[in-house]
Amino acid sequence: MSYVPVLPDELASPAQGTVDILVIAGEHSGDEHAAVVIRKLLQDQPDLKIAAVGGELMMGAGAQLLFDLTHLSVVGFFEVLKHYKYFKQLFGTVIDWVDQHRPRAVVFVDYPGFNLRLAKALFEKGIAAKAGGETKLLYYIGPQIWAWKAKRRFEMDRLLDGLSVIFPFEVECYADTNLETTFVGHPFLQSKQDCDLVYSAEGNLLLLAGSRVSNVRRVLPILLEAYERFLANYGGRDATLVYPSETILSEIERVLEAFPKAKKRISLVRNEGGIEAGAVLTTSGTMSLRCGLAGIPGRIVHRIQGLSYVLGRILVSIPYIGIANLLLEKPYYPEYIQGDAKPSVLAKEIDRCLTDQEVIQQTQDDCKELHRRLKQENDETPWNWLLRHL
Q: What is this structure's pTM?
């Protein structure tokens, strides 16, 4: 049974009577990236009043947290359906709050399934600036229309006052619209992150099961069985398992009970300090890109609910699921998906990542190219972009 936080009947009023910006981020990665922007905004303009529906990092950066949405991170069509009533209630509560308090801007951070529907509702109620209202609708870290649902760009053009993207090729995706689209650089390259990753040949094996409970339940047992097989067949190396929240930590600890040999060799570390790693097994989320930018040899492991996977294969037509692989147009991190994610195979791949000098050198070469492709040619930042639109 998934953990579902209790939803209040209404969200709190702005702490200072009015609010300039409402930021909405539904996942841990969005919460992290938005927190960097909020901190920079308040350094430049400390009188700004910022509220958030997101997570603890935005609150720590100075926003008034109205509700922690990151506690319920789900992925896949059928997983979302299970929580439909909850999302519908939250959706209505957020709309009522915006209607009552009328911030100067609502900033949507990724999370398109929720955020684009919310933008449409704010437009239809006449709250949005493009509908004659007082509130601008701005989007930071736009949806991956290059992967699927490309036609969303025309609806976004109709609803939004501005879009900022974090991959340089994304600007061209909106070239046939009138939507002002700005490349603002990738957040991993703009500032010190909470979880700094460093490649070290002698470092632990890094295990990353994702920031969603559903991912931990499906992927972590595969990672742990692969690690136990590695320990049995290829020699010893301790492992580090990074978690983003107490909710995910509880789920990790539950899964670990079934893998006592692995548990003895694993350190559980929250992503708030420097971590050295010699290799990584990771899900396909944002942490896989961070590992890639650190030059850590690794493999992507991915497994979701069966029907969600089949549906995704029908709707998504991209050669890879890892962002670094897409950017480099090659399997920088080879991907082991669904039935291909066999622990015996992954155990061997762990050993290759840790000991095969050809694999290690190729990773370092590809890492340099990845940095080059994400390099920003201008000085644009998401916080400056946002300030210009207020």
A: 0.79
